[in-house]
Every structure is written in C-alpha cells, then in structure tokens.
Amino acid sequence: MSHTAHIPSHRKPRRGASKVAIRSGVAGGFLSTIAVAGATAPANAEPVTQTIEMPVLTAADLSAAVAQSAAATQQVALDLELQAQEDAAAEEAAKQAKKAKAEAEREAEAKAKAEAKARAEAETKKRASRTAGRTTLSAPASGSAATVVAFLKAQLGDAYIMGATGPNAWDCSSLVQAAYRQVGIELPRVSQDQSVAGTQVGTSNLQVGDILYWGGAGSAYHTGVYIGNGQYLDAANPSKGVVIQDLSGYPASGAVRVL
What we know:
alpha+beta, endopeptidase fold (from Nostoc punctiforme), 3 domains, six-stranded antiparallel β-sheet, four-stranded antiparallel β-sheet, 4 helices, 21% strand
C-alpha cells in the first residue's frame, strides 16, 4: 500500500469546501480505491487529500483460494469417513470379542460338566464292582483251605515286586488273589478291597484259609493268609519275598473268612 499526501501552498481557503471521491470496483473479491478529501480542516488551512490503494486480487488468486477451500473441505470429508470406518471396526471387534468370550465360557462349562459326569460314572462303576465282588464272595465257595495253603507254600522263595502277579514274583494281594483262584474264588486285586471281601472274624478265632489284613477294614495296606499254628504266609516285602511268619511278631489288624 502506498500513501501520498498533497499539501498545497498557502492560499485563501475555499468557503465550505468538502469533497469525497470514492472509486470502487470488484474483481472476484474486494478491489477498491478510496480517495478522501477532508472537509473538516480549519478555515485557514488548505484541504488535505489522501489516497489509499488496496491490494488487488487477480482471477488466479481467487481460483487458488477456491481450490484450497475445496481441498480442505474434501480432506474434512475424508477424515470424517475414516473416523466412521474406524469406529465401525472397533464396534465390530468388540462384538466379536464378546461373542468369543461367551463361547469360551460355554465350552469351559460344558467341559467341566462332562468331567464331573465321567468322574461320577467311574465312581459308580467302582462301587458296583466292589459290591459285585462282595456278593460273589458271600456265596458258598467250592474247594478247600488245604488247596489254598498248598498253592501258597509252592510259591515260597518267590520274589516280592510291587504290581507283579506271578508266576515267579508277586506282591501281597496278587499272591492272595492267585491262591483263592485255585478253588474258584475270584478276589479283588488290591488289599483294601480284600480286607472287606468276606465275613469279618476276630484274630482270636482264626481258621486256616482266613485272609489276614493290616490296617483298617477297607483301607488295609497288606494282606496274607493264615495257615495255622499261629503262622501266616505272605509276600512280605522286597527283602523277604514270599515267606512264612509268626503272627506274634507282626499281629494282624483283622481277618475275613471266604471259605
């Protein structure tokens, strides 16, 4: 912008002189040139004229401004669309996560129910097996105690190995089971069940062929067979193997009679 002030030499001022000249034009925006001559000067002063020139906007400037505005508008629209897409994706991801969590919880619950059912069925079968064994043993048995004792004595000197079932190595309950199998009686495999596999009798009223047990009835940890004269035969332990021992040295907790 340029400013030009014209101050004329001293002359008699014109009476009541005032003049305002405004030139204006528009070229796509605002383009104007305003010339103002002040009429409020003192009577003894010459009029002052001031010319102000405004910047000129060309068609190219206007076109660039319009293009910039359009680009900004388009960018805003793109940003809004992108934000909408991101919001939709986040909402969908949250739905999928919630669905997956619910499905996992249902599967875990179903698995827990299935496991509980399997445990219950296994326990039922186990109890049924014990009951069937006791029922079978309560029936009249064939054979004799002499046959049982003869079989046991034939195994004297065999090794003791936990879990072994013969013919040259035994654990305590497998030896007892094999002996009674000789006379047609099928005993349970483990000591706990053998200790309740017949009629409970006191250790002061033993007969040959009675099953002796150590520990509680139903929770025994060892079994053997009474062979008379205060003695019993058992698969004792790894260091002794199958031997005959005196009850006085290791009294039994109880006894059951199956013959």
